[in-house]
Structure formats: structure tokens, C-alpha cells
Amino acid sequence: MDASDPLSDLRERFYIPEDCLYMDGNSLGLFSKDAEAALEHVVEEWREHAILGWTDADPDWHTYGERLGERLASLVGAAPEEVVVANSTTVNIHTLVGTFYDPDRGEKIVVDDLDFPTDHYAIRAQLRQRGRDPDEALRVVESRDGRTIETEDVLAAIDDDVGMVFLPSVLYRSGQLFDIEAITEAAHDADALAGFDLAHSIGTVPHDLSEVGVDFAVWCHYKYLNAGPGAIAGLYVNERHFGVTPALAGWWGNAKETQFDMSLTYDPAHSAAAFQTGTIPILSTAPLDGALDIVEDAGGVAALREKSLALTDFLIELVDERLPECEVGTPRDPASRGGHVAVEHPEAYRISLALKERGVVVDFRQPNVVRIAPIPSYVGFEDVFRTVEHLREVLDAEEYESFERKRGGVT
Fold it and tell me: Which Pfam families match (predicted)?
């Protein structure tokens, strides 16, 4: 399978730790030579041009966020002006929810009880800013099985009291992929807005945000897009919302033509670029520029998705065959699955430590999940096979027994 993989050569463009099976790219993707070259390029420009880099660098730094937004647009199915890189994911949730939440449209915001915590933290904070009790204003769709959220339960939660739906595209634990189109349609039928957190799908799942009519979305770039730890985040705003003043207005979101007029009256860019806040951090942004070269050379996100599904199909098949003690907590239907597989076992935490001791880098998520993410740009089918073999040996020898049950800080 590796020999016939058209994307296998991409692996050579990454720095893969020695004697390591790296299966944690849905937490932090690996460093690529392309990202390194882009970073070195802006460092050299800083050295050579100093402040003139904002205008004389190639490309200029002043419009770096907008230009990268244009490159990202095809990954999320948007017009170039609907996407920009800016801020962090959590800051983007704050500014977008804060901007678009209107109690007069509907007081309730629909979320789910398996969300990544930062989404709830930000939304609850924004509700408090509006004088709303988050416990009253949040309508939380509960999971039936602790793994997934039923689409019909989300649709049933959307009524005339709802002003906004904000959900992940992919659940961070189980890897369930949501039906964005159905949820957006239901939200709009109720005159509500639909927003999504694409952190666990950007770069591995194609999206059609504009065609579907999604109102806004946020994501990070340090997982499947391999842009580095703490890399700048991204956001999408549908063009019908252009011109609105962001809740967290800042000078970098001012129209570029008037930005240096230094007017004390905000003149928002007539694009998603209005949601930039402070000055773009060039050194934290440049690696994304290089990382996107790999996506484009792969043939786009559709090609990466095809291989990703083949890898996760293979992984699920191996778990079924080789690991009867474990459960697959990820939907088996490819249309309902993101880019990682949740392997469940009561000793998942200690198993993850035993695997790392062997050089198999995975991560643990509460309560019983070993997350395994075969990133299609640098993981092969043999890597998946060897990972399962290591897991089989850990279970056979009960190697996890040598590790304490008490968890550390980072898992």
C-alpha cells in the first residue's frame, strides 16, 4: 500500500523524530522543510529590511494575513476574501461569537456536551458580557453514548428561541464528523446563525462553507496543517456579514487603505480581514506559508482526505482483528469520521505512556481514549501496522502496569 501511495514522497519533506512512530499530529503536526524555509525567509527579511519588511519584503508583511487567507480559502470552500489568518482560535471564538450573538434574534446558543472546553469557556464569557446567565442561555445537546452527538438531537434543539448554533466540525475525542450542511440549514430555517470550530478537520476534511451558507468558522493550523506550536489561527466569515464592526475591534482589522491615517474612528475592512485584532505575528505565521506548499503539492485537501480515510480504515480494521480488548470509539462510516481514531481501553492513560516509552507517540483523552492520528502527509500504512503491533505487545506484556495511574499535566 505504501508503494502505491501517490503521496508517499511527501514524507521526505518532514523532520520525523528518529526511532519514532508519530501518531499525534492531531495535537501537533511535525515540522517540515517547507515550513522551515518559510520561517528562515522572513527571519532573513527581518535582518535585511528591518521595519521596511512591512512594505519591501516578498511577500510584504502588511498583507500577510490576507494573502494566506486566499491560500486557505480552497481548503474550506470559501471565497478568498472570506478567509484570513489572525489571532488564536479562542480569541477568534470570542470575537465572532461576541460580534454575532444577538439576543433579539434568539437568546439561546446551541452547543454540545462533548465540545473542546475552550469553546464553552469563550462562549460563556461572551454571554456574561451580555448580562446573560450561561447556564440559562446555553442549550447543550447531550451525547447518548459519551462518544458521539446525534444529528437529529442537534436539529431538535434548534427552535425559535435559538439565535446561534456553534459546534465543532469534528469531535476532538471520538473523531465524529458533523453534518455541517444539515445543521446550517436547520439554523437558518430558525433564523439563527451557524458557526463551527474546524480545528480537527481543517487540512484533512474538505469543506464547502460558502456553498452551504455557514455564517462563520474558526480553526487552528498546528494540527493537520503542521504550522508549528502556537501557530496563528484562521477564521472564515460569510460575505453577507462584511462591514459589521467586530466585538474585538483592533487596528489590524482596519481597512488597509486607511489604516495609517490613524483615525480614532474604526474603518473595518470589507472582508474577513476586519476580524484581525493586533499586529500579525510574522514569525508565528510564516511556517504556515511553507506548510501550505505541501497541501498544494499533494493535490489539495481532497487528495489528503482520500489517503486519510484509507489510513483510518486500515487502522480500524487492525484494531478489530488484533485488539479484541479495545473498542473503536470513532464512527466507522467514512462520511461521519474525521482524521483520527479513538481506541478505547480502561487503561488508556497508562497504555499511552507505555507506547511513548516504545517511541510510539499518541495521546490520551478522558476517560478511556488513546487517540491515534495517522496524518496523511507523513504517515504510511506500515506505520499504522507497526503502531497496532506495539499496542498488541503492550497489552500482552501488561507493560502499562509499570506506570502510575495519576495523570501528569500534558497528555
Answer: KYNU_C (PF22580)
Helix axes 381-397, 348-357, angle to 10 degrees: 110
pLDDT in tens, 296-343: 999 999 999 999 999 999 999 999 999 999 999 999 999 999 999 999
Q: Specify the pLDDT at position 172.
A: 98
Topology classification of domain 8-32+299-400: Aspartate Aminotransferase, domain 1 (3.90.1150)
Nearest to 100 by CA among 211, 236, 200: 236
Strand partners, 328: 343
Q: Judging by beta carbons within 10 Å of its beta carbon (0-12, 13-18, 19+), is residue 366 exposed, middle or buried?
A: exposed
Q: Find cell 476517560 and name the residue.
A: 367
Q: Is 132 a catalytic residue?
A: no
Among 13, 132, 223, 365, the one annotated catalytic: 223
Check if 197 is active-site.
Answer: yes
Q: Which CATH number describes the domain made up of 36-296?
A: 3.40.640.10
Q: What is the mean pLDDT of the chain?
A: 97
Which residues have a Cβ under 8 Å from the Cβ of 145 and sit 6 or more positions away? none
To 10 degrees, the CA torsion angle through 152, 153, 154, 157? Answer: 120
pLDDT tens-place string over residues 195-238: 999 999 999 999 999 999 999 999 999 999 999 999 999 999 99
Residues 6+ apart with CB under 8 A from 306: none
Indicate if the pLDDT at residue 407 is higher than 80: no
The pLDDT assigned to 406 comes to: 77
Active site residue 406: no
Among candidate residues 197, 289, 363, 383, the one labeled active-site is: 197
CA distances from 78 to 159, 302, 308 (A): 27, 15, 22
Q: Answer yes or no: is pLDDT of 408 > 90.
A: no
The three cell numbers locating residue 49: 529590511
Q: What is the pLDDT of residue 238?
A: 98
CA distances from 334 to 8, 79, 170 (A): 22, 27, 12
What torsion do the CA atoms of 233, 239, 243, 246 make, to the nearest 10 degrees?
A: -30
Give the domain ranges of the chain.
Answer: 8-32+299-400, 36-296
The one catalytic residue in 22, 31, 196, 222 is 222
Average pLDDT, stretch 146-155? 98
